Design the sequence.
């Protein structure tokens, strides 16, 4: 089916499918942040999800719907890290062989975790196409390709994060969601439209990888070649034929933040909220805390998408920042 729609019923079905396997992550708040923003802010903390990011939701939802024959043959995935770990872990839980294509310069913590979950890792260098490598491996081995975002089962699974958020908080005025390829953003937007009518859904991506923002504003699919940003989970070059139409249908606005703003926000949340988050994970929080969203008097949801950060790298940034 071309450009399949993802509905709230799909998100609800995904939630039932993953309920016994994914963590129901906490929703945290901060009187300090409320005071700084003039808003009531709720953080949906997917950094506490299994394997440290929201990606487990979509991966488990997709892998659990494969036929027994497809599960036996195994799956191939490509990812800078979090989708890699998610497929590796979900596949281990379901007994599915998995091969993961990852960049050579992926964060060490993500490479080690993916291997630790028992997946075979194939690395690639600059200039190589991860999609082409993954597609070739899938064809050679007869495995199923599980993309990181551009698949309706992935989108529906990611939307369960917002479903839980609204169940815990009630209606919100604004929802801020990190955006790479748009799987989390569009899944959350579908849930938001149903559970909190009238809400403004805003996607946030790094300045260096602004393809989704330009796509949203031009209503034409845009791309960016090998974006250089510390938000490694948002280094996607373009959205896909599943996520782009969903974004145009369900998202209200897109904006970008700089790497400097991501670092400032990440360390602020480490210090004030007492949890570890990664640069990609704080994209939405950075838009709020760096004053790019006027949230005064509003109830605001912020998805913290992950916490898989290389602590040695972060320590270097902290010393030199």
Sequence:
């Amino acid at each position: 089916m071309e450009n399949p729609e993802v509905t709230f019923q799909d998100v609800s079905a995904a939630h039932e499918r993953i309920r016994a396997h994914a963590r129901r992550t906490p929703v945290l708040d901060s009187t300090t942040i409320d005071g700084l923003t003039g808003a009531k802010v709720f953080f949906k903390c997917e950094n506490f999800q299994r394997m440290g990011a929201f990606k487990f939701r979509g991966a488990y939802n997709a892998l659990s719907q494969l036929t027994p024959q497809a599960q036996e043959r195994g799956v191939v995935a490509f990812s800078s890290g979090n989708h890699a770990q998610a497929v590796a872990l979900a596949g281990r839980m379901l007994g599915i062989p998995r091969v993961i294509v990852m960049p050579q310069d992926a964060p060490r913590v993500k490479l080690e975790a993916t291997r630790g979950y028992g997946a075979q890792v194939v690395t690639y260098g600059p200039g190589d196409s991860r999609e082409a490598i993954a597609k070739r491996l899938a064809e050679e081995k007869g495995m199923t390709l599980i993309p990181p975002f551009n698949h309706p089962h992935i989108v529906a699974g990611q939307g369960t994060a917002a479903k839980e958020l609204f169940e815990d908080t009630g209606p919100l005025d604004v929802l801020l969601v990190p955006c790479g390829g748009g799987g989390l953003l569009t899944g959350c937007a579908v849930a938001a439209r149903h559970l909190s009518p009238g809400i403004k859904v805003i996607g946030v991506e790094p300045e260096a990888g602004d393809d989704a923002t330009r796509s949203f504003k031009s209503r034409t699919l845009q791309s960016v070649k090998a974006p250089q940003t510390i938000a490694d989970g948002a280094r996607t070059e373009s959205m896909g034929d599943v996520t782009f139409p969903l974004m145009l249908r369900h998202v209200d606005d897109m904006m970008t933040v700089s790497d400097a703003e991501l670092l400032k926000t990440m360390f602020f949340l480490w210090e004030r909220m007492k949890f570890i988050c990664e640069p990609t994970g704080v994209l939405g929080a950075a838009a709020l805390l760096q004053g790019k969203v006027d949230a005064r008097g509003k109830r605001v949801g912020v998805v913290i998408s992950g916490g898989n950060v290389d602590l040695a790298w972060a320590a270097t940034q902290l010393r030199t920042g």
